[in-house]
Amino acid sequence: MTSLANNYNRRNISFKYGKGSFLYSTNGKKYLDFVQGIAVNSLGHAHPKLVKTIRDQSKKLWHVSNAFQIPEGEKLAKKLCQKTFADYVMFQNSGAEATEASIKVARRYFYSIGKPYKTRILCIKNSFHGRTLATIFASGSKKMTEGFGHIGGFDHFVFGDHKSLKKKIKKNTAAIMVETIMGEGGIKVIPDWCLKELRKLCDKKKILLILDEVQCGISRSGNFFAFEKSKVAPDIVPIAKGIGSGFPIGAVLMNKKVAAGMTPGTHGSTFGGNPLAMCVGNSVMDLVSSKKFLNNVKKSSRFFFSNLNQLKKKYPNIIKEIRGRGLLIGIQLHTDQSNFIKKLTENKLLTIRAAENVVRILPPLNVKKNEIRMAVKIIDKVCSELK
Ligand SMILES: *Cc1c(COP(=O)(O)O)cnc(C)c1O
Asked: Are residues 63 and 81 in the same domain?
């Protein structure tokens, strides 16, 4: 008998502890964890430097109100601004809070320049921006919004349908908000040329570009942000997942222009930006944002993709496509996704589903070559059993 609400479809495994790429179950089994809390634990489980950061800071100070100065947050914001397009940062605790706050920043900007009618956000149909009331309606997904009434303010276009995208920009449109790489939607990468065109379109129509990097950001793609490769500068970027490597942190990064609208009292968060979270964020930033670390992510990615593409050639009736970038990887299957994931789990490799019959593979960003080899071997075995 459980006292937990039934809003998850949970697998029947629980874990006692984790170390790096591995999880150890309560019934004594060892799993290669390529879910990592869904792209959250960017440095794997129980990274010694992060354990030390939490231990040291927990003896000093956990939480103070944003009514006071928080130097640890100033420091993390500065690091994020130095590394990216951003001029200002606003801290939250999760991805959905960060995407929802991004919508607030966009609307507030137009309010502050005397165009309060510009409120609508244009999103991709069946995208994912979180589970608050506003963000489920941003997704335009029937499954996520069914039974939850209605929250207005969002328009949608189909991924890749550029004609309808242009047609849907109206006088009251404030911003286009898309995931640079759609995670839940099936690891669909928006090509660099598309991002460039999106930026041009937003400039021409004088609207804002919000790139949701909650899943694909923080070095997951092999660049600190997935959009960096395209050389495009967005106006607003919500982040979360990887920046805390398992500690709940969210943030909205923004340029100077839009930040001007966020005057005292326009937004707030009791927990957002607390000293303990900020210390963890600072340690994660120091570890994942160096050129050396990013080069290593790229190297691991090339190794993983070349092995998976070989498996695709070997099992053309099982694997349809290998998708993604960096260590945000999707295997699109011809065969049943849930059975495939179940078989991988039986062979001690943890993965997770995404839309379009895709199995998502999300190793920690510091994954070792022999761990990738282990995973490939298990995927090979499962494919050969299903053949
Ligand atoms: C996970 C995710 C979110 C929501 O993050 P939560 O922390 O679960 O609220 C938003 N956008 C994208 C792209 C995500 O992958």
From this structure: yes
* Alpha carbons 67 and 249: distance in angstroms, whole number: 19
Find out whether the beta carbon of 183 lies less than 6 Å from any atom of ligand 1.
yes
- pLDDT tens column, 132-180: 999 999 999 999 999 999 999 999 999 999 999 999 999 999 999 999 9
Number of helical H runs and strand E runs in the chain: 13, 17
Give this prediction's pTM: 0.98
Are both 255 and 306 inside the same structural domain? no
Q: What is the CATH number of the domain that holds 182?
A: 3.40.640.10
Question: Do 364 and 220 share a structural domain?
Answer: no
By the 10 Å C-beta count (0-12 exposed, 13-18 middle, 19+ buried), 1 is classed as exposed
Tell which of 288, 322, 339 closes a domain: 288
Task: Kindly tell me the burial class for residue 55, based on how many C-beta atoms sit within 10 Å of its own C-beta (0-12, 13-18, 19 or more).
Answer: exposed
Query: In this structure, are residues 73 and 82 in contact, taking their beta carbons and an 8 Å threshold?
Result: no
- CB of 130 within 6 A of ligand 1: the answer is yes
Ligand 1 binding pocket includes 45 (Cβ within 6 Å)? no
CATH number of domain containing 350: 3.90.1150.10
Please give the residue range of the domain that contains residue 342. Answer: 291-386
Q: Which of 133, 215, 237 to mutate to test the pocket of ligand 1 (most atoms within 8 A of CB)?
A: 215
- What average pLDDT does this structure show over 301-317? 98
Q: How many structural domains compose the chain?
A: 2
Residues 143 and 239 in one domain: yes
Are 195 and 82 in the same domain? yes
**How many Å apart are CA 52 and CA 15, to the nearest integer?**
22
The pLDDT tens digits of the residues spanning 223-261 come to 999 999 999 999 999 999 999 999 999 999 999 999 999
Query: pLDDT band at residue 387, thresholds of 50, 70 and 90?
Result: confident
